[in-house]
């Protein structure tokens, strides 16, 4: 009918949006079909071996997003929720010996809580969600690293995430010996950092195989490059995606 304005989901407003419009979003995935078919928000993950520079680049990226005024949720795995934080303490405790299956299930428990309580709600509000490690770490560490069956990992991970996959995964790749040496500068190694070099080499290969299988989702970065150069590469990959957030 002439003169009628279609109801519009505010999370679909063009980028850059202000905090005000973002907060005015209905707060759930669009319920005004068929006007809007957007998957709201933008989900970015950082992956890679120990000491690759994930947290360093995550901080740089989120600082730039904040400068743009982009509503952003920053989180990490394991962790990001009160339950996840407790699970993280257990998983990283160097004094504990944890078998591969319970280790995987603990990561999955943390992930399920994080996706349901933090990541999905933030995406539904139209925010950029940046997560330090996510499901690819499970496939690399518990799959390639610990040799748990991939089908089992994928099935439980799907249950934990409801199939939620990142729009873009930034994989910082480097020789594990170099990454462990970097991480060692921080002090006492955690439970994962204590694992032998052969384990970390399998993890690295696992990450690279995942990237090869899904080249559209992954950006593989040479983590031996200087921090500043890596930050520019990451920014160049992220900015074209912002208008979908
Ligand atoms: N491009 C880089 N070149 C050299 N050193 C770097 C680079 N990026 C980060 N570092 C340094 O390497 C160390 C590990 O970086 P960071 O904590 O960001 O890695 P990480 O991947 O988050 O590690 P973890 O897997 O333990 O969480 C830090 O001391 C950091 O300053
Ligand atoms: Mg880190």
Automatic annotation (TrEMBL):
The keyword Coiled coil does not apply. Its EC number is 2.7.4.9. Keywords: ATP-binding, Kinase, Nucleotide biosynthesis, Nucleotide-binding, Transferase. GO terms for cellular component: cytosol. Residues 46-234 form the Thymidylate kinase-like domain. Gene3D superfamilies: P-loop containing nucleotide triphosphate hydrolases. InterPro entries: P-loop_NTPase, Thymidylate_kin-like_dom, Thymidylate_kin_CS, Thymidylate_kinase. GO terms for biological process: dTDP biosynthetic process; dTTP biosynthetic process; dUDP biosynthetic process. Belongs to the thymidylate kinase family. This is Thymidylate kinase. It comes from Deinococcus arcticus. The gene is tmk.
């Amino acid at each position: 009918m002439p003169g009628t304005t279609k109801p519009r989901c505010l999370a679909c407003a063009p980028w850059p949006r202000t905090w005000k419009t973002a907060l005015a979003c209905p707060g759930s995935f669009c319920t005004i079909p068929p006007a809007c078919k957007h998957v709201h928000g933008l989900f970015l993950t950082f992956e890679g071996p120990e000491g690759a520079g994930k947290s360093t680049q995550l901080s740089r990226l989120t600082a730039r997003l904040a400068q743009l005024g982009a509503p952003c949720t920053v989180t990490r795995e394991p962790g990001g929720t009160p339950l996840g934080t407790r699970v993280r303490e257990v998983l990283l405790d160097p004094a504990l010996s944890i078998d591969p299956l319970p280790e995987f299930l603990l990561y999955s428990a943390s992930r399920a809580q994080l996706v349901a309580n933090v990541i999905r709600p933030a995406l539904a509000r139209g925010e950029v969600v940046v997560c330090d490690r996510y499901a690819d770490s499970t496939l690399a560490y518990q799959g390639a690293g610990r040799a748990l069956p991939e089908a089992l990992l994928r099935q439980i991970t799907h249950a934990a995430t409801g199939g939620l996959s990142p729009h873009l995964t930034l994989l910082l790749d480097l020789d594990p010996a170099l990454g462990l040496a970097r991480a060692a500068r921080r002090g006492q190694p955690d439970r994962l950092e204590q694992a032998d070099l052969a384990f970390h080499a399998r993890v690295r290969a696992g990450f690279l195989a995942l990237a090869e299988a899904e080249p559209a989702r992954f950006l593989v970065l040479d983590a031996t490059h200087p921090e500043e150069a890596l930050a520019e590469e990451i920014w160049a990959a992220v900015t074209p995606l912002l208008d979908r957030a």
